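Follow-up to my post from last week.
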Amino acid sequence: MSELFDLPSDLQNSYLGLVGLHLREALIPVLVGLLVALPVAQLCVRVRWLYAPVLWVTTVLYAIPSLAFFVILIDYTGLSELTVMIPLAVYSLVVLVPAIVDGVRSVPQETLAAATAMGFGPVRRYVQVQLPIAAPAIIAGLRVASVSSVSLVSVGMLIGNEGALGNLLNSGLTYNQPRLIWLSVVGTAVLALLVDAALIGLRVLLTPWMPRATRRNKVRALTVKEAVR
Amino acid sequence: MIRIDSVTKRYPDGTVAVDRLSLEIPDRSITVLVGPSGCGKTTTLRMINRMVEPSEGTILIDGVDSRQQPVNTLRRSMGYVIQNAGLFQHRTILDNIATVPRMLGWGKEKSRARARELMERVGLDGTLAKRYPYQLSGGQQQRVGVARALAADPPVLLMDEPFSAVDPVVRKGLQDELLRIQDELGKTIVFVTHDIDEAVKLGTTVAVLRTGGKLAQFAPPAELLSRPADDFVEDFLGADRGIRRLSFFPAAGLELLTTPVVAVDATAERIAEAGAADTPYLLVTDADGRPLGWSEPRDLTAGAITADRLLPYGRPFVAGTDSLRSALDCAVLSPTGWAVAVDASGRATGVVSQQVIAEAIRGAHARIGADAARDADTEPDDGKARKVAP
Ligand SMILES: Nc1ncnc2c1ncn2[C@@H]1O[C@H](COP(=O)(O)OP(=O)(O)O)[C@@H](O)[C@H]1O
Ligand SMILES: [Mg+2]
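User reply:
Got it. Predicted complex:
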């Protein structure tokens, strides 16, 4: 059994080690992306005309191949994790910005008026009313961003040893070992599913206030909408 | 007192929503702003708590310009209730109601205790406390909206078409509840509606606005109905304002006939006496005095009166508290043309004919006319026409 997970020594890591690395390289960028997307999205909500150009910029950035990013970044960040994570963070914006904007905009006018009338300042209103109500949409965006990030980390193998489970795929091809290829591909897929499931769990935890029946449908519709974008 | 002093609101796109409006909103009463859609009611209301800033003019709260205090302090001293309630969908009912107290730093326990107290006050079952808004009916949500607005005990309550989105039965319940709460709390309420019936029912004073945000008339409902200022107001009041106006005349002064009322177990002697009253019908009651129905005098034989041979009496009115409108309605509904008066416990206190009601109406009109002539010289006395149940 243990032989199944034995890895060539040049990977300098155990299977679990690679899984941990993969998660790190995939999720830190999404988290950073979220931190960037929140203020950007809020700006887009406040200054309506900004939304279209911002969306355009995120789409163009998304269209840049990761290899091109690596070539540019290597001069600054070298053959490091950071070189892999920066493009991933940038890519996540294409999903996260519209998810947050749509979520915040979905807050009913009456709710906002009521908050203002009760003496909520803009900051308090954003943090205590708009963000919580946008949470389902934001988490829907996070699911798409995280899953795609998990699958994208593997390209890190292109710059040497930074692709985590992707390196395993590379080794499998080099040493012609199908076992390693399977370990890499299945591992990545399972990881993506687990991350997705964890985010669904987070949403259920955070939104006891959503009607049970429509909760699943609504969020699925959002997820599909964002994925299509 | 809230004083709106020649206030104009011009929106950036040039729309003049409110045009040199001046209003004095008296304390501890309900002032209704009514008018067709788009006439500037919401804009006016929102200028009071500065969600909309006036382009010209000032709004004085107890004599002080409302811009003198920080805007959020001003807003927290005014409860705000809107159509569809605008509840926080992500918070429980209890936390929704506790919002302003929490913001004012009351502490969690005190705020929640206060919220529970308010749930009771607005007629919400305590078991709803931990629910979320989506689990409540529209009417219940609206009650939560009212409770939330009252939570920090603000002296002023601003209400923007709060009951427009619920069905008529629920709406009537909410209106009655508001009047009851107002009797207990005595807030200064500014209530916006496009429904003239609601305005007449709730308002101590009613401001009728016309499109373009101009004040058409500002008067107590009874005066509005009896003396509309112009064609616009008259039109807005609708065709049956004459009948509706009767809501303001108490039925208490009606002269009730008691002789034609006989109990089922009445003696032949008593029936003969009743028959001698010379009314076309006699009202038969049960042994307790509750009305059963009408009968022609010659059809009644002592000891042999059966309820199923009687003519229905429609619906009675309560002599002490109902209005002439109610009495007239009962007479019109009764197949005999006579209305049955009862006391609070439902026992018949007498009967009255359409003719007598009509005379009472003429008398009431004559009194109003005399009052009007007198008022022409003196200041009108605020809220003089105390409404009676319609
Ligand atoms: N933010 C706004 N910008 C421009 N025009 C507005 C705005 N809000 C309201 N209006 C206009 O002002 C007028 C009065 O609106 P409102 O006060 O909402 O009327 P009501 O509440 O009586 O229906 C309407 O013609 C409306 O279209
Ligand atoms: Mg309005």
